[in-house]
Amino acid sequence: MNKTTACRQVTNGILGYTKKVVSLQGIKLKTFMCMDSILVTPKDKSQSATVKKILRALDVPFRETDSPYNPEFVEKIRQSEKEIEEGKVTRIGTEEELAEFLGLKK
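The structure corresponding to this sequence follows.
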């Protein structure tokens, strides 16, 4: 930019966008909106529906995408996370315990 061109940046922390205004000798030429992207991963269909309702109520545009993961794989991961929360884990602290757990110790 030269001396006669100015660029100022206005950020709205509440609405989550940045607006850049380019002007030439005080005349606004162009406004650029730089929106934030947020990835939301609901745990179930109920949460998904609630999030969609909230976004629609706030007039926030969104798009849905299918998960790239196999649903059976996702269920196994969720089950494992549940077992971890319940304390159903095997803790291995030494190399000897690891060898025994893997069946390598005779």
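Residues 71-85 form the longest helix (15 residues).
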